[in-house]
């Protein structure tokens, strides 16, 4: 769906992006990570032409982006940033309706769309529609920013640290919403973040950048397990990579059938991660957990040996 071919961007004598090639498939969730100044935001902004690339070609559905009319780019690509970029003198409703208005949708259709999006992002119409951005908390403003990016129902979403300023609980609920949106509506998402846990859990494709170049890309598990070099390994968490890998694997992956020795007292949900299981073992000081299904019925067990992937019998 999105293809960057040998893309470079120079600002005067600075090379911000240095001949990168990247293909994001339709419906894929692609996360860009890397140290500050490595060219993530520049890469994102070249895709919607907020920045013109210096060299190479960018295609959307096999068409060079320079051949698209501005209106088409606006309709097809939503863009959300950490600082939200909301217009301060516009109400929440007006901010969300920005792109549909630019696209000259009829008023009734814009109003209906704004209402739909506010419901989707858990913003009550009565409470928020008439508020101004400076009357919102950071998290509410970020929700409005995401709603605005979704307004014209774009098939591509570009998101630059959209949850950067959020507490872990709000952040997690927005991450779940976004994952759900992507799965349900089949959006193609390119997402920039500094939070490696966020990148690892959200991404189908993880792209590691350094000094304007792509160091490595692939599925988060394969990048974690087989980093191309020391830089990638340390960016992904160094010695913490074991925990990061465990966070991506479900308990069901290492579960054993129920034994005959009675069901363990401490329980873990089958959908929980191995990292959560390890945490429960540490916290409860036990080496065995009963694995339960959605109805809390034990369906298997997980031992510490199995959890760490040791071979042989318990
Ligand atoms: N408009 C500009 N003019 C000149 N240099 C720029 C411009 N925009 C970005 N740069 C430079 O390009 C490089 C890449 O910047 P970019 O904003 O893409 O980094 P980033 O990976 O998004 O960093 P961060 O994680 O800090 O947001 C930096 O060295 C930056 O100083
Ligand atoms: Mg940036």
Automatic annotation (TrEMBL):
Which SUPFAM superfamilies does this UniProt record tie to the protein? CBS-domain pair, P-loop containing nucleoside triphosphate hydrolases
Domain ABC transporter per the UniProt entry, residue ranges:
2-236
> A single Pfam family, by name?
ABC_tran
The GO annotation for biological process reads: quaternary ammonium group transport
Q: What is the top-level taxon of the source organism? A: Bacteria
Q: Which InterPro entries match?
A: AAA+_ATPase (IPR003593), ABC_transporter-like_ATP-bd (IPR003439), ABC_transporter-like_CS (IPR017871), CBS_dom_sf (IPR046342), P-loop_NTPase (IPR027417)
Molecular function (GO) terms listed?
ATP binding; ATP hydrolysis activity
Record's keyword terms, sorted: ATP-binding, Nucleotide-binding, Transport
As for family, the record states: Belongs to the ABC transporter superfamily.
Looking up PANTHER family in the UniProt record yields: GLYCINE BETAINE UPTAKE SYSTEM ATP-BINDING PROTEIN YEHX, OSMOPROTECTANT IMPORT ATP-BINDING PROTEIN OSMV
- Provide the protein name: ABC transporter ATP-binding protein
What organism is recorded for this protein? Halomonas sp. RT37
């Amino acid at each position: 769906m999105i293809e960057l071919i040998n893309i470079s961007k120079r600002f005067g004598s600075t090379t911000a992006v240095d001949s990168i090639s990247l293909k994001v498939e339709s419906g894929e969730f692609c996360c860009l990570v890397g140290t500050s100044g490595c060219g993530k935001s520049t890469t994102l902004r070249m895709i919607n032409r907020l920045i013109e690339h210096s060299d190479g070609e960018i295609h959307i559905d096999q068409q060079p982006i320079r051949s698209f009319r501005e209106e088409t780019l606006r309709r097809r690509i939503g863009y959300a940033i950490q600082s939200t970029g909301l217009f301060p003198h516009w109400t929440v409703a007006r901010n969300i309706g920005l792109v549909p208005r630019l696209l000259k949708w009829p008023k009734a259709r814009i109003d209906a769309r704004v209402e739909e999006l506010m419901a989707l992002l858990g913003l009550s119409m009565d409470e928020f529609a008439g508020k101004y951005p400076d009357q919102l908390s950071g998290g509410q403003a970020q929700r409005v920013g995401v709603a605005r990016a979704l307004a014209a129902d774009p098939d591509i979403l570009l998101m630059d640290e959209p949850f950067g300023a959020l507490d872990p609980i709000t952040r997690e609920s927005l991450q779940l919403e976004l994952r759900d949106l992507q799965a349900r509506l089949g959006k193609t998402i390119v997402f920039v973040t500094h939070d490696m846990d966020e990148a690892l859990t959200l991404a189908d494709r993880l792209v590691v950048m350094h000094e304007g170049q792509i160091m490595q890309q692939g599925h988060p598990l394969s990048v974690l397990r087989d980093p191309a070099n020391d830089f990638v390994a340390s960016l992904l968490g160094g010695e913490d990579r074991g925990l990061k890998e465990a966070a991506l694997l479900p308990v069901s992956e290492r579960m054993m059938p129920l034994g005959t020795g009675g069901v363990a007292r401490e329980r873990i949900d089958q959908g929980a991660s191995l990292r959560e299981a390890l945490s429960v073992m540490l916290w409860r000081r036990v080496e065995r957990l009963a694995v339960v299904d959605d109805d809390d019925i034990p369906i298997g067990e997980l031992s510490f040996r199995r959890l760490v992937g040791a071979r042989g019998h318990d």
